């Protein structure tokens, strides 16, 4: 049978590239004089890229591929390192990149806090840093230049909106949490719960267990859940993989498609296909194709132009209405 | 009269302790079942038992191989990575039909086991490090072979994952059959006896002319193949090959199941029945914590406490 | 000094001690004897806090005590050599000697210089010359036993307990040991002495206590009992039945075949063996003689494939055997009863039954499945034939008494029906009754056409049992005694006559040399050094 | 009384080589079980097998990559090795007693969080709180292992879970990261430099010196070896077996807690996701350093070399630049295997003599 998920990562598809959400003028900006560095020619510069996790899930694959493709297209020398989900390793990785002579850094942080040593090393050499996907808790335009990424709280809120719509704002929902201690988890949870509390007080969150962002774990937890809470109306999975695991569990338990509403975050092809098949009610996109925007920002910055400190991208959403049509946009 | 009392007392106490040691883990399972029946809504249903049995099957299969490794005074940390490798191989070769893929996946496990066993038996590397090296490299190889999660849409695989025979899921049947086979191997075969002797006193086994190297290599090959089978079953259940996360921390779950089941880590003794009960105990514990929706902090602490209690009940006594 | 009353200790399945009374008095050497499994070691372990008694009272220095750990017993001035060497093999000889009472400098750090010097002296005064910095495990069992002795007597103890200290010792070392014991006695120290070598008891002991099946059967001055009476008390049989027990049971001559069944040719192992050649013909018992560390055990191990030789050949019944592989040697019909039964012999966690069947398993299986009926039969046969004392075939071997463990091992090898049997100290730690049985068995086996290579530090056993004795020194063959030359005198002569080699380790200290001659009157003790010196070590303990 | 025994071995031997030849207090540092020259050489090779490998890899790396042998790079490696090294120090003691401590990764993370939280009450609290809590968990480990005779693997596995649970509980399930004031003295412990070298590196070196002296030259150290070498014999020889075991697990807990706290000072925050897999890293470092997992044999200095070796390998993989993450794992696994094989081979030759 044809399986299209393995040839999905197509960073070249510009039409699905990221769009900045609010290029508003009120946003804080940063330029090279403010930052205290010197102009350089991006073309001849070395860019260091630190990836936080193995390129083994669709999100990370697409993210790294997008960065690499863009660097190649622009003819920029790219050094990369992968922290294999170990924060200590990511700190050393970035320091290694600096020691190896990176002039600019693009970091996909595993964690928001704990970047002191890296920021100190970078500051000593005035190396501009752009963080993608997750933010670093530090001072923009001083410790780093810009953050490019989604607003995870917002993602949670939008997922809540979808859940409210799917369930009609009544009943019981469960949350499949991401890995514990991870700020993506924290923020996607917070946004979701806040929105539910504000908009649909009759919708109750009755169950929150971690699925560790993995499909298998998502499936196992859901299997337990549907037995202890047979009346559950909706499941909010903080990433697609866990959501797909939940679908597996529901199938295994003999439930019908759509009997339990599932809302997930990310926008992988499999999940969007799930909407088409009727198992998933909605997917909030979290676009991983950071390459173009990241290099655009670095380019502008190194030329001395102003860049926004917070470049929040506009994430799309997949719903039963657009899923079929937008399937090609999914990663 | 006093003499009688004197005679009887210590022996009886010792026997009682030994009973507890031998059956402590079963008692633990019973307690957890009772607690759940009393406190967990909708616990007493065939569906629920089915879920628990299906979820525990892969862990149990890995634990069976682990029990052999531990019985030989070793340990196999690479099992989780072998599961990942087997799922990668399975996906890659599914095009040639499920049987071919299954055999290739098992061969993959056997090769890793052979590498483990050779490092341990021929070079004399300590099991924990030898298998640690293959744990790291194994998952790397799995990811090189299959760099990302891939859906498995094979009808054979999907019926393996969710089908059943007379109402008993295939997964459970396979796990039970393997448990019986391994139990039989330990109890009744020459290999089993030799394995225990090697685990108890390697120099003595060596001097008694036992084929120490062959036995050790076989142990790790079996552990590898069992882990590969578990990988295949997990894949069938998930309907996808996920070499990144499949089997992570499996080594710790398996070791816990084995040790909680009363097999000492010092080798020379293997309890397969206990291992089954140990795996079930851990599964029930996890299920209980999830069903009651406890926060992760609680879950971890509760697991720690139960593990210690279970091992305490099953601990080796009488040694001074 | 140290006394117990009504001591009882029960193990699951065995009552090891049953209301035993026992007292050790200052300046008195008290022998503790009994069959294997009579409870001697258990008594000692209960006395010194290894085990806790189920009932009974221990009085030390006039007040009741109950030691929780061996350490407490040591602090109370009880120093013990436990049966089976109990030292740490990976640590150096000196560290073993001084563990827990290392000399320290002003900073509280260990003064290795002093420690090594003192360790060297302590051992040298016992006639043992080894580099005290090498790991203990590189020493033979006998030498390790001497280290344990040095450790025990070098603390400032009031009671010294020795559980079979001579089981691996040569006559020379035994003499040294006796010298030490006499010295302890003079210093008004109470000595408890366990041994299966009855002759020794008469030499050094004042009193004797006999245990049987965990019960006290006799206690009194040893001079009042003759040897026969002692044996009959131990075995619980009438005098008439036992007359003759305790003397070797060898008949002497066997009818050897002509073609050697085993021929080891020019075995060489670096630093250890130098072109050692030994031949054994079917039906012949060949003894390997030599001093402690002369390479007898190594020779046996090299033949049995447990020690890969650098060069040399082993031929069994005409065909060459692959060296350096135990399975190959066993397949060829060579069986080795190893010297270090605790570390290399028994598999402690397995049952008596499984231990006996272990080596023979492939022959007792079909398609890899164990044939339990066959196993039971063999186990039954040997448990009866060797009179193995266990609560049943399913008892763990680790729980048996030392002598019974040895019998289990013998059974393991006899079950293999070997062509050649290499016996390294086969009667070590075996009681008189069993010893006679084992010796009779060796004879019997030889008569059945088995080739036997016998290593024994019991000179009498070696001489009586062997048809021929090959004498080793420093890992090389220096003489071969045949026919009428097989006498203790000749053997000692051969050993002494060989030119002194320059090997670092085996030089015999001049004062110890005098002790070597057997049969001579108790030799002068090698100076009061060990105790004296080490008592200063004891004082140092507190700084 | 002592005057009769002042005779030194060198004088006592008229003929033949003195058994005490080459004796100099130093043998204990070089070849712990030292003896004949050949044996000593091979002991040296074994102990320094890891060092030799380290040098080879380092030389190769400096030839292959001109950015390897730079001050920055070395300094980075040194500081980031420091924390693992401190954890490995405690682990060395545990492993020499024949045990293992799987809880160190979680304790490291917990120590960091407690240190960061405590830093708001001053440096003393920031240091003592992690030490107290992690030391206490180590003590409990030790008690369960020594007194209740439970397997170290399982006890410390449970402690690993429990410590992670405690960490989650005090950080609102991991969503709360405590920050360290960058200007505090505590933060400077992680960041300041002394003579161009980071304070954590100095602290690590000091701890290793103390650890080495403790292991080699103190009575406690002898007990550690004895317990690992043969526990039963050690007990019969009067070594305080239980106390020694309790002490090493407590020590390991303290080391992990301290390393975590210093790491928090370095990162200026109590990162909650740290420490996963750290126990395996520490164990491999110790084993690569020549310590036997079966106990009774090992050295402190080896563990340091082991840590550096792991760090250098990681650095080299990064120097290569664009190795796919999957291949990175294959390479590090293969490398681990090679190092362990080499080291085992050397060790076995030594043991056969
Ligand atoms: N740990 C144990 N567990 C169970 N039984 C034991 C244990 N230790 C000893 N026994 C039993 O106690 C009895 C006495 O053993 P003990 O070792 O004291 O004998 P012994 O007199 O020292 O014999 P030997 O001369 O062979 O050394 C034996 O029957 C033995 O099987
Ligand atoms: N008295 C001693 N002095 C020095 N080294 C010794 C002594 N005894 C044993 N050794 C060491 O122990 C090693 C093993 O010796 P081995 O066991 O072959 O001797 P053996 O003749 O069997 O004597 P035994 O077994 O009675 O100790 C020898 O290589 C030697 O280095
Ligand atoms: Mg005894
Ligand atoms: Mg010998």
Automatic annotation (TrEMBL), chain B:
Subcellular location: Cell membrane
Principal subcellular localization: membrane
Database matches in Pfam families: BPD_transp_2
Topology within the bilayer: Multi-pass membrane protein
Signal peptide positions (record): none
Domain of life: Bacteria
Transmembrane spans: 23-44, 56-72, 92-112, 119-146, 166-186, 215-234, 246-265, 272-290, 296-314
Keywords in alphabetical order: Cell membrane, Membrane, Transmembrane, Transmembrane helix
Protein name: ABC transporter permease
Species per Swiss-Prot/TrEMBL record: Streptomyces niveus
Automatic annotation (TrEMBL), chain C:
Region (Disordered) residue spans: 518-543
GO molecular function: ATP binding
SMART domains from the UniProt entry: AAA
Domain ABC transporter: 2-238, 242-499
Keyword Nucleotide-binding: yes
Ranges of biased composition (kind: Low complexity): 518-532
InterPro entries (alphabetical): AAA+_ATPase (IPR003593), ABC_carbohydrate_import_ATPase (IPR050107), ABC_transporter-like_ATP-bd (IPR003439), ABC_transporter-like_CS (IPR017871), P-loop_NTPase (IPR027417)
Keywords attached to this entry: ATP-binding, Nucleotide-binding, Repeat, Transport
A Pfam family it matches: ABC_tran
Protein name listed in UniProt: Sugar ABC transporter ATP-binding protein
TrEMBL record, chain D:
Coiled coil residues, start to end: none
Keywords: Cell membrane, Membrane, Transmembrane, Transmembrane helix
Listed Pfam families: BPD_transp_2
Comp. bias intervals (Basic and acidic residues): 1-10
Matching InterPro entries: ABC_transp_permease
Chain positions covered by the region annotation Disordered: 1-31
Localization (cell): Cell membrane
Membrane-spanning segments: 50-69, 81-100, 120-143, 150-170, 194-215, 246-266, 286-310, 330-347
Protein's name in the database: ABC transporter permease
């Amino acid at each position: 049978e044809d399986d299209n998920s393995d040839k999905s990562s197509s960073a070249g598809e510009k039409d699905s590239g990221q769009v900045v959400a609010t290029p508003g003028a009120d946003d804080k900006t940063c330029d090279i004089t403010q930052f205290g560095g010197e102009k350089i020619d991006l073309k001849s510069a070395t860019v260091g890229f630190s990836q936080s996790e193995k390129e083994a899930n669709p999100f990370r694959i697409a993210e790294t591929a997008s960065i690499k493709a863009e660097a190649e297209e622009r003819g920029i020398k790219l050094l990369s390192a992968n922290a294999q989900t170990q924060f200590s390793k990511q700190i050393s990785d970035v320091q290694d990149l600096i020691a190896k002579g990176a002039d600019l850094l693009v970091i996909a942080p595993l964690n928001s806090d704990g970047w002191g040593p890296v920021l100190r090393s970078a500051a000593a050499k005035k190396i501009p840093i752009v963080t993608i996907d997750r933010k670093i808790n530090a001072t923009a335009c001083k410790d780093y230049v810009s953050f490019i990424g989604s607003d995870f709280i917002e993602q949670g809120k939008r997922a809540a909106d979808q859940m409210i719509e799917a369930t009609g704002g009544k009943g019981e929902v469960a949350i499949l949490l991401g890995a514990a201690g991870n700020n993506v988890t924290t923020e996607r949870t917070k946004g979701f719960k806040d929105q539910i509390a504000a908009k649909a007080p009759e919708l109750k969150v009755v169950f929150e267990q971690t699925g560790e962002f993995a499909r298998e774990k998502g499936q196992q937890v859901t299997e337990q859940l549907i037995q202890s809470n047979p009346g559950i109306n909706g499941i909010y999975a903080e990433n697609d993989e866990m959501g797909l695991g939940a679908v597996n569990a529901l199938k295994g338990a003999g439930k019908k498609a759509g009997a339990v509403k599932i809302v997930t975050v990310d926008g992988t092809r499999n999940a969007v296909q799930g909407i088409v098949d009727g198992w998933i009610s909605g997917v909030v996109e979290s676009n991983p194709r950071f390459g173009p925007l990241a290099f655009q920002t670095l380019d502008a910055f190194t030329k001395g132009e102003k860049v926004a400190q917070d470049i929040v991208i506009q994430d799309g959403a997949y719903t039963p209405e657009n899923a079929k049509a937008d399937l090609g946009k999914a990663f | 009269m006093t003499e009688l009392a004197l005679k009887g007392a210590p022996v009886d106490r010792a026997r009682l302790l030994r009973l507890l040691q031998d059956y402590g883990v079963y008692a633990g399972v019973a307690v957890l079942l009772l607690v759940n029946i009393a406190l967990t809504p909708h616990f007493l249903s065939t569906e629920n038992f089915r879920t628990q049995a299906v979820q525990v099957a892969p862990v149990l299969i890995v634990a069976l191989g682990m029990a052999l490794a531990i019985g030989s005074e070793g340990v196999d940390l690479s099992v989780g990575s072998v599961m990942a490798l087997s799922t990668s191989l399975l996906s890659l070769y599914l095009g040639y039909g499920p049987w071919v893929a299954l055999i290739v996946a098992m061969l993959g496990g056997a090769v890793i086991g052979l590498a483990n066993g050779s490092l341990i038996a021929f070079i004399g590397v300590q099991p924990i490090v030898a298998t640690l090296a293959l744990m790291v490299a194994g998952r790397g190889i799995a990811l090189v072979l299959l760099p990302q999660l891939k859906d498995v849409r094979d009808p054979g695989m999907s019926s393996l994952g969710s089908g059943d025979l007379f109402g008993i899921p295939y997964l459970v049947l396979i796990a039970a059959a393997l448990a019986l086979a391994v139990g039989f191997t330990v109890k009744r075969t020459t290999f089993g006896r030799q394995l225990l002797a090697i685990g108890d006193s390697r120099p003595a086994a060596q001097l008694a002319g036992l084929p120490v190297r062959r036995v050790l290599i076989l142990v790790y090959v079996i552990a590898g193949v069992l882990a590969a089978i578990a990988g295949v079953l997990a894949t069938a259940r998930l309907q996808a090959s996920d070499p990144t996360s499949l089997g992570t921390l499996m080594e710790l779950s398996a070791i816990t199941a084995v040790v909680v089941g009363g097999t000492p880590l010092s080798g020379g003794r293997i309890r397969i029945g206990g291992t089954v009960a140990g795996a079930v105990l851990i599964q029930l514990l996890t299920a209980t914590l999830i069903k009651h929706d406890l926060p992760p902090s609680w879950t971890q602490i509760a697991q720690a406490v139960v593990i210690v209690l279970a091992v305490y009940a099953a601990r080796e006594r009488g040694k001074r | 000094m140290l006394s117990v009353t009504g001591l009882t200790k029960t193990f699951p399945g065995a009552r090891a001690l049953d209301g035993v009374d026992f007292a050790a008095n200052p300046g008195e050497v008290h022998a503790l004897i009994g069959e294997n499994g009579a409870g001697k070691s258990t008594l000692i372990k209960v006395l010194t806090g290894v085990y806790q008694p189920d009932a009974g009272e221990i009085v030390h220095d006039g007040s009741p005590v109950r030691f929780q750990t061996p350490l407490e017993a040591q602090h109370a001035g009880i120093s013990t050599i436990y049966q089976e060497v109990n030292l740490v093999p990976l640590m150096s000889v000196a560290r073993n000697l001084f563990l827990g009472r290392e000399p320290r400098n002003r900073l509280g750090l260990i003064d290795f210089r002093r420690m090594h010097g003192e360790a060297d002296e302590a051992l040298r005064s016992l006639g043992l010359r080894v580099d005290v910095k090498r790991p203990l495990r590189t020493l033979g069992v006998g030498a390790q036993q001497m280290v344990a002795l040095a450790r025990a007597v070098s603390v400032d103890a009031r009671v010294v307990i020795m559980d079979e200290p001579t089981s691996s010792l040569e006559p020379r070392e035994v003499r040294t040991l006796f010298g030490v014991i006499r010295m302890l006695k003079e210093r008004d120290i109470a000595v408890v002495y366990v041994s299966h070598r009855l002759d020794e008891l008469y030499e050094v002991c004042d009193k004797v206590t006999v245990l049987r099946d965990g019960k006290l059967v006799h206690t009194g001055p040893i001079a009042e009992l003759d040897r026969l009476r002692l044996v009959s008390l131990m075995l619980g049989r009438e005098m008439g039945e036992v007359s003759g027990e305790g003397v070797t049971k060898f008949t002497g001559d066997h009818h050897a075949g002509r073609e050697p069944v085993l021929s080891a040719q020019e075995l060489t192992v670096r630093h250890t063996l130098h072109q050692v050649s030994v031949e054994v013909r079917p039906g012949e018992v060949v003894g390997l003689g030599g001093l402690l560390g002369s390479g007898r055990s190594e020779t046996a191990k090299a033949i049995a494939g447990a020690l890969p030789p650098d060069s040399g050949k082993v031929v069994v019944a005409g065909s060459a055997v692959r060296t350096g592989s135990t399975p190959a040697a066993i397949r060829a019909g060579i069986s080795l009863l190893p010297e270090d039964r605790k570390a290399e012999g028994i598999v402690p966690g397995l049952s008596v039954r499984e231990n006996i069947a272990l080596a023979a398993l492939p022959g007792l299986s079909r398609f890899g499945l164990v044939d339990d009926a066959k196993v039971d039969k063999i186990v039954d046969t040997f448990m009866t034939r060797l009179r193995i004392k266990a609560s049943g075939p399913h008892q763990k071997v680790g729980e048996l008494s030392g002598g019974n463990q040895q019998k289990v091992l013998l059974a393991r090898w006899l079950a293999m029906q070997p062509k050649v049997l290499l016996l390294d100290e086969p009667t070590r730690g075996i009681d008189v009754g069993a010893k006679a049985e084992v010796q009779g068995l060796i004879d019997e086996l030889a008569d059945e056409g088995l080739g036997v290579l016998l290593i024994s530090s019991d000179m009498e056993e070696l001489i009586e049992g062997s048809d021929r004795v090959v004498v080793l020194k420093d890992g090389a063959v220096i003489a071969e005694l045949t026919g009428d030359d097989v006498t203790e005198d000749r053997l000692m002569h051969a050993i002494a006559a060989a030119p002194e080699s320059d090997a670092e380790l085996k030089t015999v200290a001049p004062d110890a040399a005098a002790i070597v001659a057997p049969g001579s009157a108790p030799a002068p003790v090698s100076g009061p050094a060990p105790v004296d010196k080490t008592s200063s070590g004891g004082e140092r303990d507190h700084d | 009384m002592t005057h009769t025994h002042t005779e030194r071995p060198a004088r006592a031997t008229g003929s033949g080589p003195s058994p005490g030849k080459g004796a100099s207090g130093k043998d204990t540092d070089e070849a712990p079980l030292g003896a004949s020259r050949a044996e000593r050489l091979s002991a040296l090779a074994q102990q320094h097998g890891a060092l030799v490998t380290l040098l080879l890899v380092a030389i190769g790396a400096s030839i292959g990559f001109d950015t390897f042998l730079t001050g920055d790079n070395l300094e980075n490696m040194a500081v980031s090795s420091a924390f693992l090294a401190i954890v490995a120090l405690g682990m060395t003691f545990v492993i020499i007693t024949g045990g293992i401590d799987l809880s160190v990764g979680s304790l490291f993370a917990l120590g960091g969080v407690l240190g960061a939280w405590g830093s708001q009450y001053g440096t003393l609290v920031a240091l003592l709180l992690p030490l107290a809590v992690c030391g206490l968990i180590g003590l409990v480990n030790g008690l369960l292992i020594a007194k209740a005779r439970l397997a170290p693997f399982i006890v410390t596995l449970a402690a690993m879970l429990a410590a992670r649970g405690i960490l989650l509980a005090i950080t609102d399930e991991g969503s709360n990261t405590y920050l360290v004031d960058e200007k505090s003295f505590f933060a400077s412990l992680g960041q300041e430099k002394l003579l161009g070298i980071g304070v954590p590196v100095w602290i690590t070196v000091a701890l290793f010196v103390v650890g080495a002296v403790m292991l080699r030259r103190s009575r406690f150290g002898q007990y550690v070896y004895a317990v690992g070498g043969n526990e039963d014999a050690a007990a019969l020889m009067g070594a305080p077996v239980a106390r020694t075991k309790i002490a090493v697990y407590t020590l390991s807990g303290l080391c992990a807690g301290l390393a975590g706290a210093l790491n928090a000072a370095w990162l200026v925050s109590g990162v909650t996701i740290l420490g996963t897999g750290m126990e395996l890293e520490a164990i491999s470092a110790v084993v690569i350093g020549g310590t036997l997992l079966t106990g009774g044999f090992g050295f402190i200095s080896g563990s340091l070399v082991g840590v550096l070796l792991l760090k250098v390998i990681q650095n080299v993989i990064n120097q290569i630049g664009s190795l796919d993450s999957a291949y990175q794992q294959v390479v590090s696994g293969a490398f681990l295997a090679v190092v362990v094989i080499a080291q085992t081979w050397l060790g076995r030759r030594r043991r056969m003599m």
